[in-house]
Amino acid sequence: MLKKTTASTGFPCICAVSINWPFRRRAIRRPGWFRAPRSDPGHHRHVAVAPRTGLQMFPIAMSFLLALVRQVKRGGVIINEHDLTSAQTRRHVGVLGRWFDFIRLDELPRRLAQPGRRPFCLLTFDDGKRCNVTEIAPELERLGVPAVFYVTTAFLTNGTALWFDRRKALVRALGQCPAGLELETLKQLAFAALNERLDRACAQFGVRPEMESDDVRPMSWEDARSLSRRGFVIGAHGLTHAILIRETRERAFAEIEESLAKVSSELGAPCKTFAFPNGNYSPELAQHALQCGASTVMTTEPVWAESHSALWRLPRIQLFGESTRTRIELKVALAGLRGVLANPDGSGRAYRQVDKRRSALRQSPQSI
Questions:
Q1: Can you tell me the mean pLDDT for 231-257?
Q2: Residue 155 is inside which H or E element, if any?
Q3: Does domain 77-158+225-368 have CATH number 3.40.50.1370?
Q4: Which ranges in the chain are annotated with CATH 3.20.20.370?
Q5: Torsion of CA 270, 75, 243, 160, to 10 degrees
Q6: How far is CA 164 from CA 160, 317, 364, in A?
Q7: Does the reported pTM lie above 0.85?
Q8: 300: helix, coil or strand?
Q9: For 31-78, what is each residue's pLDDT tens digit?
Q10: Share of the chain above pLDDT 90, in %
Q11: With helix as H, strand as E and coil as C, how does 42-91 read?
């Protein structure tokens, strides 16, 4: 039985709960200090069972926390990934599949408006790396899991490494980050200035990214068309992966419009979804994406998607390849506690202030 009360803060408080675990009951091993002592039939003495340590209990605690959050939340989660191996893909799908129903992008509006008994999970992958085709998509296909792949269009067209991969190559080659190339410093720059700074450093130190690696080089447009034919959705992710709030209004508008148009042209069908590079957005930029044909717009606000979530600022929870089951469950659970996680776009928890005007935001970005 689940009983909820509301404290003066307005947050639900759980008084009693019965968990519907998403796995078989016999798979749950209670910690030693929960077990009754076992009798030895030969000597009629008790055999002591050693209690589990705190580290051994931590994964159980994270599963329990996520189970609690899942009981009180409605809607589901949109997961933001980048590059994974086949094994990492299997692990992430296995963990998330214990708790959520995987859905297609076109199911999202209905699942938000009419939450099901079991929460949903929509998988999204950003940038358009070649490993999305060679590692991730085949595994998802084998498992029957849908996904959206957001591609940086000039990256696919020109084959030039993305700016953060060039920076990573510099740091790896030098063993340290050159002055002025700190990640947070670069993210404050317009793309032209950022690109010039990286060009100069790469030339100075004779560094080039490993374009032979599928984790660095792009998929081709034929790869993107193949993914689309196999049932995956291809979305737009800007032209250059510029951080659009650092660009002029005209330049940011062009990044959105031209990337949506390029995906539509290459696939021969309208591109209806856009993901902001690095997650940084403004209502004006989101409105422009809608005017250019997008019906869903993705951010990196690290919370669950629920009935009040606006389709022009959809939240996503960011995971990484090395994430373990415990880390995945912890992050997804904490995302259900609004305002706990910081936005990886660098804006911290500013999304909480926007949520205060939720009723207006649900209608249109023009409302604010």
A1: 99
A2: helix 153-158
A3: no
A4: 77-158+225-368
A5: -60
A6: 12, 20, 33
A7: no
A8: coil
A9: 333 333 343 444 444 444 445 555 566 678 778 788 777 777 889 999
A10: 72
A11: CCCEEECCCCCCHHHHHHHHHHHHHHHHHHHCCCEEEEEECCCCHHHHHH
